[in-house]
Amino acid sequence: MARIVKQAAERRDEILDAAGRLFVTRGYEATTIADLLEAVGIARGTLYHHFRSKEEVLDALIRRHGDRMLEGLRGVVASPLPPTQKFMAGIAAMSPQDPEQAALIDALGRSADTALFAKSLEDLMQRMAPVIAEVVHEGVATGEMRTAHPLEATRILLAATHALLDNPALAWSAEQRTAQFAALLDAAERLLGTEPGAFAAIAAVPGDHS
């Protein structure tokens, strides 16, 4: 039984890997079930054993991306960094860590299907925000941060970052992205009640894969 489960998991990952490549090269809307079957070399029944539709494949891809982000986030939360540094390290950890993943997120973001953006935002709010909010609670306890709403403030900042910096549909220039990020840092200091300039040393702009 254990061997069957392992084989099923491997096949599922194989399908997701192929789907990710197709979504990057052809686009989500243009990719068909037939394309996916050909890329993996499987029968339609095998695909439907794992996923009932292309939309379900997409949901699983987003979930897998979120799982990888969560792994990085939990490592940051467990680190000995001060809360202000830990918070920004957590934001950085949510950006794709390899070119292939970055290309997939970029391709999905450019899709005409606005539901894609909503799905990724929902995952961000429901799974990522509570983990980063743990850092804000820690910051409040140590006095580095002052807010009565750690989770809500975190969600506001993540939603703003996602909408402004992680949304490929917004074709910001490098200068515009830098300005947006500076404004987000200022907003983060105000929302989280840190000392002015607490985040000023953070130079990398999340979501910048150029």
UniProtKB/TrEMBL annotation:
<dbReference type="InterPro" id="IPR023772">
    <property type="entry name" value="DNA-bd_HTH_TetR-type_CS"/>
</dbReference>
<protein>
    <recommendedName>
        <fullName>HTH tetR-type domain-containing protein</fullName>
    </recommendedName>
</protein>
<feature type="DNA-binding region" description="H-T-H motif">
    <location>
        <begin position="32"/>
        <end position="51"/>
    </location>
</feature>
<dbReference type="InterPro" id="IPR036271">
    <property type="entry name" value="Tet_transcr_reg_TetR-rel_C_sf"/>
</dbReference>
<dbReference type="GO" id="GO:0003700">
    <property type="term" value="F:DNA-binding transcription factor activity"/>
</dbReference>
<dbReference type="InterPro" id="IPR050109">
    <property type="entry name" value="HTH-type_TetR-like_transc_reg"/>
</dbReference>
<keyword id="KW-0804">Transcription</keyword>
<dbReference type="Pfam" id="PF00440">
    <property type="entry name" value="TetR_N"/>
</dbReference>
<keyword id="KW-0805">Transcription regulation</keyword>
<dbReference type="InterPro" id="IPR001647">
    <property type="entry name" value="HTH_TetR"/>
</dbReference>
<feature type="domain" description="HTH tetR-type">
    <location>
        <begin position="9"/>
        <end position="69"/>
    </location>
</feature>
<dbReference type="InterPro" id="IPR009057">
    <property type="entry name" value="Homeodomain-like_sf"/>
</dbReference>
<dbReference type="GO" id="GO:0000976">
    <property type="term" value="F:transcription cis-regulatory region binding"/>
</dbReference>
<keyword id="KW-0238">DNA-binding</keyword>
